[in-house]
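re: that complex we talked abt at group meeting.

here r the seqs, copy pasted straight from the sheet so there may be weird spacing, ignore it
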Amino acid sequence: MSVTGKIWALHLGVLVMLAVAQAVLPAYHANNLARIMVLAVFAMGYNIAFGYTGLLSLGHALFFGFGMYGMGLAVWQVEWTFFPAVVLGLLAGGASAAAVGMLALRTAGVSFMIVTLMFAQAGYLTVLYFNQYTGGDQGFAVEAFARQVFGYDLAQDTPRAVAAFVLFAVALVLNLVLVRSRFGRVMAAMRENEERSRMLGYDVFHVKLRVMVISGLYAGAAGAAFGVLFGYVGANFATVQYSILPMLYVLMGGAGVVLGPLLGAVVMFYLIDIASGLTSAHLLVVGVALVVLVLFAPRGLLGMVRERWLPWLP
Amino acid sequence: MAAVILQASGLSRAFGGLQAVDGVDFELQAGEIHALIGPNGAGKTTFVSLLSGRIKPDAGVIRLGGSDITALPAHARVRAGIAYTFQITSIYPRLSVFDNVALAVRGGDLAASVMAALRRVGLAERADQVAGNLSYGHQRLLEVAMGLALSPRVLILDEPTQGLAAGEIAGFVALIRSLVPQTTVLLIEHNMEVVMGLADRITVLNFGRVLARGTTAEIRANPAVQAAYLGGDDAVA
Amino acid sequence: MGFGPFLLLALLEGTVAAAVLALTAVGLSLVFGVMRVVNVAHGEFFMLGAVVAWFVAAAVPGHAAMGFMLALVVAPLVVAGVAALADWLVLKRLNYDPEATIVATIGLLYILQQSALTFFGPTPRPVEAPFTWRIQTPWFGYSGYKLFVVLAAIAILLAVWAFMTRTRAGLVMRATQVDRQTARAFGINVDRVYAGTFALGAGLAAVAAVLVVPVSQAHYLMGGDPLLLSFIVVIIGGLGSLRGTLVAALVIGLGDGVISMFFSPTLAKIIATLLVALVLVFRPQGLFGAKA
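got the structure back, here u go
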């Protein structure tokens, strides 16, 4: 089989397995899987920026939050229905990433991390400050009329699972096409050697800005989907923790591997889930995972698989 | 006389108190191989960095084919036709040789253009290797292939033979000679054998100023150049 | 109470906040200056200082001052020890790579915070102040202890300044800050300097926390605000510049105190975080730092 054939067979195979898992797993795990798939879409967006292009952001919670509040406020304040509200969330994610990118991409490395962190923190505080419009700390429920698609009710398990799967499948296929395209190669060039890329005629700032927008669109889509599928919009989704989680998923699964965010999300979701059954200090798992990964496995699980066995893994 | 393809007038750049390039006038004629020589610290790399746009000049004008490119950023100058290969090898070590060159190709049949550039430098059969695993000499050739794949009007090579074995240098010289007259080559080089064997004309920089310019024979006979190379600051002044 | 007294009260509160902030931020600034790494777990060292102070104070019988004085010595030492350990186990192995260090210290943040939740619990707990004198103004009484906090902070900052400029250890730290390679070539044990700097930075945060814990409370989530404010101060003051850090701590501490009293503290933080982002983008040497 050609490399292209192998790649598509693997990724479509994973999608089939996910679909089967959704159908046969008990309701609790099927529901978890729906959450995991939406969070994996968020992490895929993070991976496009960090894993492929080398942009280590600590502010992706802002783009996720923009997606979630873009959708949620459109439903709450102006009573938009599902499709327009979700599309608004998607675009809000991309637009917020463009705005942050315009400024933050003038810096690099540690400064870039802190600038993105500060913008995200300002965004979170803004949600709290305007609590009469945003619901503040309490958040708000997404009303039932906005959770109807083609006559199905997203509050029910099966339509919700299908919706999460469709979003994930589309995001995965687009991610795969993107990183195997010519632009995908240019993204890797930014990560590997920025000065060389400039001297091959690439406008480094604009390439990175485009990547930020793509990444923000993923985050926005995931934020909007999370809100509408699980029926709640709240400020805790805009906290720093939601910038760190996608980073953790990507580091765990493998930065710069298309399937890395999914695997990382599955592993971390269940690690945290198991830990929270044992102790209220379940976020200890997050801290230990971050330190262990950065010390001993900076390439993540699939990164190691690629290194040892599957060099063609995109 | 051939047309001037790249022209600099009054080009200056200081770093702190050091005037690295000081009012240099310079012309590159289409299709020539032009060598830029001078002692260490003469401002050669700064000068070509000004030409390629990696550094902004304090004063002066740069023209490519008659149009003013002084305000263009580096990446736009590359697109306008000025390619630059780094003094210290700069490739994408974790990408394949093919991908390295593919990043330089714009439009057209990608695979064909990449392989054509690789064939010219003799790396075609290594296309699938990871670039970082190539020998040093092959990495330099890869960089030239990337420069060629840009199909530049002017190719600036910053000390391309530095660190190459004697056998590799001969091949390199033949390769550079095969580039003209389709491409114009500006060469910074310390190896005088390479310079004298390749260059049509030579410009000598010293203390950021043009010390001499002319044909190979003229430069060889120039007493000021000899003084600068043999040391003895009073002779230069 | 009229506007004048109200402003005086705000200024007093701001001065206390500025003193505590200056101690904490100088710790962060030292670490960044000498080691060129950003320690995201700095706020957790602050929290740890308060928590350890509570344990010490709770263990010591008799007058509150005894427990407090002991905590003022023990807590910074414990926290400095934890920091040195973290440096040795984690940061050193990362070779102080700036980006990897940030990720690792985020991990450290969670580990410290969640450990405190496990061993200290979720309830905020007070530490009794060593004395309870009040200073009476015509309009309001003011805690004498808070003024003691300001004086103590000034004394400690002077000690740090003397340490950096007058002792051999301080000289070694400054030499390492200027050029790690050269320092190594001159026989300076850079590993030990780094471990010591990281411990000193964390210890300063712990001292600040011990000073502040009698007027606030020890809580496992209390590290967030000092971290954010220290970041703001260090960046606006100019990364790695101690003088800039002190000036910025005074401005931000007073500003935060005053703005928070008259307006919303959330609004003050929004403005400050945006300001920090813009400073990093447009004036990376800081507002008060020397030009880079």
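couple things i noticed - The longest helix of chain C spans residues 3-35. Residues 12-223 of chain C form one domain.
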